[in-house]
Design brief:
By secondary structure, the chain is of the alpha/beta class. A 5-stranded parallel sheet has the order 2-1-3-4-5, with helices on both faces. The longest helix has 15 residues. The termini are close together. It is built from 5 helices and 5 strands. The mean pLDDT is about 90. The protein has one domain: Response regulator (Rossmann fold, 3-Layer(aba) Sandwich).
């Protein structure tokens, strides 16, 4: 088996971070690194070089789109695919996020296995635990 994927989760909600971490570790066998703020996420992205970033849209101080723009300005991490997590399900809002240049958008709430499937579909990863 290849090395597990490493995913950085940036969300200000402790409960959400914990649920996502448990989901991805249990359902996909991925390594999960978590950050509670946009700035912490930027620092961790540089330190950890994850395979992907899950980024919450609504956060205090630095929101998801702002964090994403800053991420894109840092050459060492601008290539990392980033998926926004949002409670806003309107198509127009999703389109705005895609226009920012994010790799994908996943709407909350989500089921654990659905989250893994959606991430795999967006990033064109195979879920090695299923295959």
């Amino acid at each position: 088996m290849t090395n597990p994927k490493r995913v950085l989760v940036i969300d200000d909600d402790d409960g959400v971070r914990e649920i996502i971490q448990i989901c991805l570790e249990a359902a996909a066998g991925w390594e999960v690194v978590t950050a509670a703020s946009g700035q912490e996420g930027l620092d961790l992205a540089q330190a950890e070089q994850p395979d992907a970033i899950l980024l919450d849209v609504m956060m205090p101080e630095m929101d998801g789109p702002t964090t994403f723009r800053k991420l894109c300005a840092i050459p060492e991490i601008q290539h990392i695919p980033t998926i926004l997590l949002t409670a806003k399900a309107k198509i127009s809002e999703k389109e705005q996020f895609i226009n920012l240049g994010v790799t994908g958008v996943i709407t909350k709430p989500f089921e654990a296995q659905d989250l893994v499937d959606q991430i795999c579909a967006i990033l064109k990863w195979e879920n090695e635990l299923l295959s």
